[in-house]
Amino acid sequence: MESSVNLDGGFGALIGLDMVEFDRDGARSVCRLTVAPQHLNPHRVMHGGAMYSMADQGMGAAVYCVLGEGESCATIEVKIVYLAAVRGGVVECESRVINRGKRVIALESEIRNEGRLVAKALGTFAVFPARTDA
């Protein structure tokens, strides 16, 4: 992984996401978010987009565990199934690499609210040469 990659900054920081575990050997990551009013939809439950963002960010972090020198990545797709409403508390997303191909990496995420499974996601990321002009 390039040292310039900031797993705690950017969009994740904007929504209040904390990267709490980055496990290179296990090719997994864990991120956490404390639900606040800005994360709720008009029905006063956590917006699906916030949960989706947790899965995408967590998967991206897990991908960095298996990238080689000079490689970068981008999300191809993420499919998510919402299983239960979240009204508050802490939400945690554990993401792990399930297959590393030459050009595509498959991942899964489980999102839990106070230990209860509330969403499950499956995603794919593209692998390509890192830009050297940035």
Features:
single chain, alpha+beta, 134 residues, disordered N terminus, 2 helices, 17% helix
Secondary structure layout:
Elements: H1 10-15, E1 18-23, E2 28-34, H2 48-64, E3 71-82, E4 90-100, E5 104-113, E6 116-129
Antiparallel strand pairs: 1-2, 2-4, 3-6, 4-5, 5-6
Would you give an account of this structure?
With 134 residues, the chain is an alpha+beta fold. It has two helices and six strands; from the N terminus they run H-E-E-H-E-E-E-E. The protein has helices at residues 10-15, 48-64, and strands spanning 18-23, 28-34, 71-82, 90-100, 104-113, 116-129. Strand 4 (90-100) and strand 5 (104-113) form a beta hairpin.
Can I get a quick summary?
The protein is α+β, with helices and mostly antiparallel strands and 134 residues long. Helix content is 17%, strand content 45%.
